[in-house]
From TrEMBL:
Protein name: D-xylose 1-dehydrogenase (NADP(+), D-xylono-1,5-lactone-forming)
Top-level taxonomic group: Eukaryota
Residue span(s) of domain Gfo/Idh/MocA-like oxidoreductase N-terminal: 31-138
InterPro entries referenced in this protein's UniProt entry, alphabetically: Gfo/Idh/MocA-like_OxRdtase_N, Gfo/Idh/MocA_domain, GFO_IDH_MocA-like_dom, NAD(P)-bd_dom_sf
Domain GFO/IDH/MocA-like oxidoreductase: 151-294
Region (Disordered): 374-403
Enzyme class, UniProt record, top EC level: oxidoreductase
Keyword Oxidoreductase carried by entry: yes
Pfam families: GFO_IDH_MocA, GFO_IDH_MocA_C3
Length: 403
């Protein structure tokens, strides 16, 4: 049977939208996907029509046969385009709430970049709105859809390492912020909800949640308590440049244990593993079970290798490495998932459910409260519409993507 075609509309023309578009337009058959395929039928830039035109010329034209792609100079025109099935929101997370409200208001399903919003109240408002309007809505946490992540979750559910006692996960990127990011960069700019918690810490939390919380049957999933946090401010902007979090997940195991611990960390100046490309590499995620351990090698947003070691020395250590088929960066799998969900009329993806997005946002709210980290009132607000602070697009520093 011919694959079903899903028509995407891209909201923004920045770094991540470019990467996502490139991945989406790689032939799905290269990754064994036969049921869906993707085209990009519209792109919008809030800075200029020129930027949207350039995007179409560089990333879309010539990559999807005869399918045409419109270029718009406003997000409003994009959400009004009837040739678009689903919108990918790739703006800074400070803007997700306003941008998603706009799309939902025009009855468009959404795949929205992480972090879903700035706070849990905004996330809940969007979820309620999507539910009310019967629209698909998903946080684009790409890593969850990697074959590697699926296998690791399955290994835990199969009991390969016994009961999970503790999980630690780190995403520290080893950059000197004063050299790497000017004060306007989204990584450190509070007006764009900059800082490591929402940008990088969310991956460490993703690993804790997908291995401890998500591997339980739905009715047994309980929000963790936040036992402790440490937060360091970036000297120029006050954004968090290092955050460490200790979580306690309530569980109920056959052996009578009632909690599983999670330790999540993220930082700009430290690095998860300076030896990452050598045979001295150390794992950035460690899932400690009572019968063994699963180690995932970083960067944890795009891991390609894991190892399982066993208490029982008769059992062989297992090492597994993954390829990125068709030369993809790794974002196509979440695109396939969103397309499939939308095609069958699902409102949410099981793998990144509304419940889990919300629990994670609540956890991050709690961490920020303890660290006394606030963003400007307009980006914390649930009011809609708000004209967020104007920027000068000529001063915008576009993110380059790391591998
Ligand atoms: N999943 C992943 O691997 C990654 C996810 N991300 C997430 O994607 C989002 C965007 O990041 P990224 O693409 O790196 O950022 P960029 O700065 O490269 O691009 C963001 C784009 O958003 C649009 N935009 C709208 N309003 C603003 C504003 N006030 N300031 C700046 N840009 C604005 C601009 O596009 P235009 O002018 O065309 O409207 C801009 O190019 C973030 O939420 C981030 O967390 C980022 C990197 C990797
Ligand atoms: O989501 C992300 O993943 C990759 C990182 O390089 C980037 O800063 C972050 O936003």
């Amino acid at each position: 049977m011919a694959p079903k075609v899903v028509r995407w509309g891209m909201m923004a023309t920045g770094g991540i939208v470019q990467t996502f578009t490139k991945d989406l337009l790689v032939d799905p058959k290269t990754r064994g996907v036969e049921d869906v395929c993707h085209v990009v039928t519209a792109v919008a830039s809030s800075s200029s029509k020129d930027s949207a035109d350039r995007f179409v010329a560089n990333f879309v034209e010539g990559k999807q046969g005869d399918t045409k792609c419109s270029a718009y100079a406003s997000y409003k025109e994009l959400v009004q385009d009837s040739n678009v099935d689903i919108i990918y929101v790739g703006t800074p997370h400070s803007h997700h709430y306003q941008n998603c409200r706009l799309a939902l208001e025009h009855n468009k399903p959404i795949l929205c970049e992480k972090a879903l919003t700035v706070n849990a109240e905004q996330a809940k408002t969007l979820i309620d709105e999507a539910r009310k309007r019967n629209l698909f809505f998903m946080e684009a946490v790409w890593t969850r859809y990697f074959p590697l992540s699926i296998e690791v979750r399955q290994a835990i559910q199969d009991g390969k390492i016994g009961e999970v006692i503790r999980v630690s996960a780190d995403l520290s990127i080893g950059e000197i912020p004063e050299d790497k990011f000017d004060e306007g960069h989204r990584m450190v700019n509070l007006d764009l909800a900059g800082g490591v918690l929402l940008d990088l810490g969310i991956y460490a939390l993703t690993w804790l949640f997908q291995t401890i919380y998500h591997t339980l049957p739905k009715e047994k999933r309980r929000a963790p308590t936040v036992l402790g946090t440490a937060m360091t401010s970036e000297p120029r902007t006050g954004a968090d440049e290092a955050t460490t979090i200790l979580l306690n997940f309530p569980v109920s195991t056959p052996s009578g244990r009632s909690s599983t611990h999670g330790v999540a960390s993220a930082a700009l100046r430290a690095h998860f593993d300076f030896e990452r490309d050598s045979d001295q590499a150390t794992p950035a995620v460690r899932i400690f079970g009572d019968q063994g351990e699963i180690q995932v090698f970083g960067p944890i947003y795009r891991p390609s290798r894991y190892r399982i070691t066993y208490r029982d020395k008769q059992k062989q250590t297992e090492d597994k490495t993954f390829e990125f088929p068709g030369g993809i960066h790794g974002m196509s799998w979440e695109g396939d998932e969103a397309a499939r969900c939308w095609l069958v009329g699902k409102l949410e993806s099981e793998t990144m459910s509304w419940d889990e997005s919300l629990v994670i946002m609540k956890t991050m709210d709690n961490v920020r409260k303890q660290g006394n980290l606030k963003y400007p009132d307009d980006i914390e607000s649930t009011e809609y519409p708000i004209d967020l602070k104007k920027r000068d697009p000529s001063k915008h520093v576009q993110t380059e993507n790391r591998d």
